[in-house]
Amino acid sequence: MPPTLLLVAFLAVLGGAIAAPPRAPAGWSLHRRADPDALLTLKFSLVQSNLDKLDAFLLDVADPQSPHYGQHWSPSRVKETFRPSAESVDTVQAWLTHDAGIHADKIKLSAGGDILHLDVTIAEAESLLETEYYLYSDNEDGSVRVGCHEGYTLPEHISKHVELVWPTVHFGGPRALSRRGESISKSSSRVGRDSGASKTPIENIVALAEVDCDTSVTLDCLRALYNFDFTPVSGDVNTVGVVEFGKNVYRPWNLDMFFETYSPDQVGVIPTLISVEGGDPTAAGVVDEASLDIELMMGLLGPGQNLSLYQVAQTNTSLDPTDRLLAALDESYCSVAPAESEGITDCGNKPRTNVISISYHLNPDLNDPAISPVVQRQCAEFGKLALTGITFVASSGDYGVSYAGQCLVDGALAFGNPSGSFVAQLPASCSYITAVGGTSVAAGASTDQVEESTTDFWSGGGFSNNFARPAWQDAAVQNYLDNFAPNYDASVFNRSGRAYPDVAANGYPIVVSEKGRFVHTGGTSASAPIFASLIAAVNDARLAAGKGPVGFINPALYSTSFAGAFKDVTVGNNPGCQTDGFPAAPGWDPVSGLGTPNFVKLRDAFLALP
């Protein structure tokens, strides 16, 4: 066999350099060596063609200065452009049959031409990949799977054609998949907290009509804060969706309770269900996240705009539900998804909405061989979908510069907010997603005044360890790094990484109805659907003017054409990892991004584009 190189997450980034093997997977126990005679289906995910041009393709349709602005691609054009080359297919097949001696009958190419399926024994797989396979037990649910946590090798001439091999080093996301941006109260502990954190009950909802928006944020407060005077005019042509994962569900009577007070015309109205892998919003589960998202989006957009609910089933905690969502939106991703063997059946058969809001963090942004290849592939898929005209919006998180209270210590995630390197979160740190940080109205301030970065939780923000800083945010981010960034050691954060959040919106104290009562709640889980609603309203105006949806908005937001569309937030910071995190500052900053939106100016700036 020819000389080999370890295939790791960042092989392409490091130009083929050998990296240290991954650590044993967190959350799993090593059970025993796999039976050498047991059968295994290996999946060789082939390198996509033209992926190095994805940014250029997106800028061509998303840069306000481009003559092709708004000319989004068809799904079929996207599929053919990024389909692996015939050279990649032929090279890997030839290696498997001629060099490795695998019979051709054991090798099958997926319908999309992007993955080779190979039926072999464990012994054959170990010989092929120069590794050892083991059985691992999930510490949470007891499920067992096969893998090779110490890595595997491929010939150098083959590794450049192969993106991933399954099953090998990837064991799914962290133990707390489908964590939301968080629902918090002033008294709640932030470290290690997530969905279901305590709320502040509201004893007298009628009395809220007489209080200010610094103590209770209602729909009217949000309309005043963001100059959001909106009545839909495009009808069913305009589409907007919100994603809920696993057992995060809603109850219609909670919506009705909210709408009876704040939008009587919507009593009895529920979102349109788009069930992914059998996701059921009526099942038993936790109602806080979905209630927050749906009430805010439906309430802000009003009865003339339908909201679609992507309810994504999560039956196995070791599987990343992001893969199920992406596969449901794009058939070509279905065979690539690592969970394919676990039963993904919704493959490109679900409708795509113009805007999709995600109030969850699903993976830490680590340069880790067990995580990086998957999250990089996921991010690229978000970019390909954005090329078709979808705007993805995500919460930036509620733990400042840490990942849910975890920081990087000696190369591994450590709980308890220890002193260590900052950890960004996904999907917010993916460049093709618009990340939204959290703000609050300052004590005693009015809605006419600029908000501040909230102190009721620490708005997530920082720099990616997986994705390089895109050109469209270079000037804004470099200004912050040169003039306002703390003088941390170079190991604390990646100064050259994609910076987030991009924008901000109110995150506390939001008034919602859940479990038969009104509560004050929030987090960037609220900020994301608020901003997504504004972008949906922008699309409504553009469609009414005979134009298309805005799609990938980040290059436009950072351009000079949108300089007046945001209120600059300069007060606050986002502590974590036993530091003060980053301070807010004039211009873009890693706490509040470009600031909070002025809807009328944002809408008019987008209407001025083709």
Q: Report the CATH C-level class of the largest domain.
A: Alpha Beta
CATH architecture of the largest domain: 3-Layer(aba) Sandwich
Number of helices: 15
Beta strands, count = 30
Count of folded domains: 2
| Rg for CA atoms | 24 Å
Q: What is the CATH topology descriptor of the largest domain? A: Rossmann fold
Mean pLDDT: 88
Uncertain spans, ≥5 residues at pLDDT below 50? Answer: 1-22, 173-198
Q: Alpha-carbon distance between the termini?
A: 56 Å
Our estimate of the beta-strand percent is: 15-25%
Percent helix: 10-25%
Describe the structure.
This protein has 610 residues and is an alpha+beta fold. The chain has 2 domains: 4-48 and 84-166, no CATH class; 179-607, 3-Layer(aba) Sandwich (Rossmann fold). The chain is 24% helix and 20% strand. It is built from 15 helices and 30 strands. The strands form 10 sheets. Strands 12, 13, 14, 15, 18, 22, 23 and 26 form an 8-stranded mixed beta sheet that branches. Helix 8 links the parallel strand 13 (272-276) and strand 14 (308-312). The protein is globular, with a radius of gyration of 24 Å. It starts with a strand and ends with a helix. Residues 1-19 form the signal peptide. Residues 216-609 form the Peptidase S53 domain. The active site is at residues 289, 293, 525. InterPro entries: Peptidase_S8/S53_dom_sf, S53_propep, Sedolisin_dom, Tripeptidyl-peptidase_I. Keywords: Calcium, Hydrolase, Metal-binding, Protease, Serine protease, Signal, Zymogen.
